[in-house]
């Protein structure tokens, strides 16, 4: 006699499913392609961001020796200029701002040594735009221009104090006699201001007056950057003043080539987030 199977029913294995029985498959989600697009855009965003940050650090290093590395700086800017067009120029501004500021510091200092004038914002924009190459002009924001001028004060301090130590006087720009003659021959009877010689300390003091007049307290990140650099700028000007006072009052007591401490404390780096 055959015993009945009283155990629990056994599950049918997949291999036991007849070939003519088909499994219903769910259609692909309509959101899948959308998220794949988002993933691609995010990957491109992070790639551009990393390129800008790397180029900014390289530009910062190369700007330290502007004459020797001018071609290197132009090549670096040309390599990222396509990533900094249109809205992306503002989107990645915080990633490139450090390099732009260091470049502006070097460019402004070079322009001052050649002309004893502060390069204008419009001229600085043109100079940077020329480095973009075929990818288009790289945007120089007014904030990067101003922060670069702040940094340039430190270079002027070193230039002035070194001149005092080696030559016993500050570099001075002589007044142009042709300009004075033209003013004297002018028909305008209004009183004329006499054109006087200018030295580095005079220019530093003028810069300090104008930079201290900036009110960026309501401008978020720019205001914070200004506050970080303002104290360093003021200390730099004071060091040149103290060096000149020391030369006049106690110059004969100091050995030839004496140079005061040029350190201004740890420098605040303005980098991207």
From TrEMBL:
Sequence similarity: Belongs to the translin family.
Protein source organism: Venturia inaequalis
Alphabetically ordered keywords of this record: Cytoplasm, Nucleus
Cellular component, GO, one term: cytoplasm
GO MF annotation terms: sequence-specific DNA binding
Highest taxon above the source species: Eukaryota
Cell compartments where the protein resides: Cytoplasm; Nucleus
SUPFAM superfamilies xref list: Translin (SSF74784)
InterPro entries per UniProt: Translin_C, Translin_fam, Translin_N, Translin_sf
Lineage, opening ranks: Eukaryota, Fungi, Dikarya, Ascomycota, Pezizomycotina
CDD domains: TRAX
Region Disordered: start-end pairs: 1-23
UniProt protein name: Translin
Record-linked Pfam families: Translin
Principal localisation: cytoplasm
């Amino acid at each position: 006699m055959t015993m009945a199977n009283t155990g629990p029913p056994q599950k049918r294995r997949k291999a036991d499913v007849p070939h003519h029985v088909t499994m219903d498959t769910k259609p692909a989600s309509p959101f899948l392609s959308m998220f794949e697009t988002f993933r691609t855009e995010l990957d491109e965003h992070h790639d551009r961001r990393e390129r800008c940050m790397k180029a900014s650090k390289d530009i910062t290093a190369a700007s330290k020796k502007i004459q020797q590395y001018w071609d290197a700086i132009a090549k670096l800017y040309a390599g990222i200029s396509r990533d900094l067009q249109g809205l992306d120029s503002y989107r990645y501004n915080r990633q490139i701002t450090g390099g732009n500021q260091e470049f502006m510091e070097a460019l402004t200092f070079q322009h001052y040594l050649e002309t004893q004038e502060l390069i204008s914002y419009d001229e600085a924009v043109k100079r940077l735009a020329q480095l973009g190459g075929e990818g288009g002009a790289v945007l120089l924001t007014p904030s990067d221009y101003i922060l670069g001028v702040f940094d340039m004060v430190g270079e002027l301090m070193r230039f002035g104090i070194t001149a005092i130590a080696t030559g016993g006087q500050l570099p001075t720009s002589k007044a142009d006699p042709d300009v004075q003659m033209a003013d004297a021959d002018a028909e305008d009877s209004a009183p004329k201001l006499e054109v006087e010689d200018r030295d580095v300390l005079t220019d530093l003091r003028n810069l300090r007056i104008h930079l201290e007049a900036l009110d960026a307290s309501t401008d978020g990140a720019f205001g914070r950057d200004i506050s970080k650099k303002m104290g360093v700028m003021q200390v730099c000007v004071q060091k040149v003043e103290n060096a000149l006072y020391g030369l006049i009052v106690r110059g004969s007591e100091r050995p030839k080539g004496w140079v005061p401490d040029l350190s201004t404390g740890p420098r605040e780096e303005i980098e991207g987030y």
